[in-house]
Amino acid sequence: VPFYSELCKQMNAGDNCKTLVGYSAVYKMCFGMACFFFFFFILTIRINNSTGCRAAIHNGFWLLKFVLLVGCCTGAFFIPQEETFLEVWRYIGAFGGFIFLLIQLMLLVEFAHRWNINWSSGVEYNRLWYAALTLVILILFSIAVGAVIFMGVYYTHPEACLLNKIFLGINSSLCFIVSMLAISPYIQKLQPKSGLLQPGVISVYVMYLTFSAFSSKPKEMITVDGINQTVCVFPFDSGSESDKKIVTSLGAVILFACIIYSCLTSTTKRSSAALRVYRNSEPETERARCCFCFGDDTEDYDEEKTTSGQSVVYDEQEGTIYGYSYFHFVFFLGSLYVMMTVTNWFHYDDHKIEKLLDGSWSVFWIKMASCWVCLFIYMMTLIAPMMCPKRFEA
Fold it and tell me: In angstroms, what CA-CA distances link 151 with 145, 215, 387?
């Protein structure tokens, strides 16, 4: 950039604009976004319909809200006592980011259950759905087993990488256990729709988190014939940190997929009925379809039609279809999660973003813990009817 150094000096941004780039700028930008969403979380608490002024602010005034968001992000760069702020804010970000990760894991488990129930319902009237289920299950477990073999070959070593060997064995064993548990006769008796599709989805995600944890771990070196060699690294084009690019890309895809899935399912008639919007409607019968994330809008509802047959848009006058405050709180946590992901959680040595490529033990343990939390959440959905049978029978 021409005149870059001179421009930075004129802006009083330090040498090479160090106050506007690097990890501190990421923290400040995300601090502004988090403040914006937290303010609207407080503003929209206990909104029950769209007729009030607070609901009008939530559903409109987009230009003013955009200006407010830009103002929050800009004002964050003028926070005094920068070192103290960053030290405190990164711990808040780590806690909020981990909570968002738990929400993401719960969405994944719910997605797996919904997918299986929807497609299994089609087996009763069309055997092609059984073939589709079988094909998807084979693909998912092939990916999971292939990932285990790949990591076993390239991310373990006879003389090093002990943690990799232990956790790869633990995680693959846990995936096998939940798969067998899902098709066990007792679970099948309590949950007839339980099958191998859910553990297939969970296993693939756990293998992704395991690969992500291994690629985030500090590199290990051993001495072979007097020469130091780096072991347990990505075998293909490892000099350009290909594994971290893969992890980042897949992580971004999963993040946005969870957000889109949550948005699609939050506006269906099924979720509306669950939130008592349609108080007099009968429960919908499950109908198998490929795009099961979208609402099944084939049912006729009297309150959605006038006498002339013209469709009327439901305007939430009786009750909100989704929680406004919860919506903003999730985006508040999402801002913290993005902040911690971009800065590789706690790893920002010497304020240089290049240091992120060296690996971090904190990232390794957080992602390993995420594997176990995901498996625990799914396992609880399987054994919950065994622990509280009367409640589930009701």
Answer: 10, 10, 36
What is the token pair recorded at 135?
A: 């094909």
Pick the closest to residue 69 from 39, 26, 100 (CA basis). 39
Cα separation, 239 vs 277, in Å, equals 55
pLDDT in tens, 71-108: 999 898 888 877 788 888 888 888 888 888 888 888 88
The DSSP bridge partners found for residue 229 are 222
Q: Residue 218: CB partners within 8 Å, gap ≥ 6? A: 358, 359, 360, 361
SS3 299: coil
Whole-model pTM: value is 0.72
Mean pLDDT lowest among 24-38, 61-75, 374-388: 374-388
Q: Across residues 355-369, what is the average pLDDT? A: 70
CA dist., res. 347 & res. 345, Å (int): 6
Q: Based on C-alpha coordinates, what's the Rg of the chain?
A: 25
**What is the average pLDDT value for the chain, to the nearest integer?**
76
Contact by Cβ (8 Å): 206, 371: yes
Give the phi and the psi of residue 302 in degrees, each rounded to 5. -65, -35
Alpha-carbon torsion angle 266, 267, 268, 271, nearest 10: 50
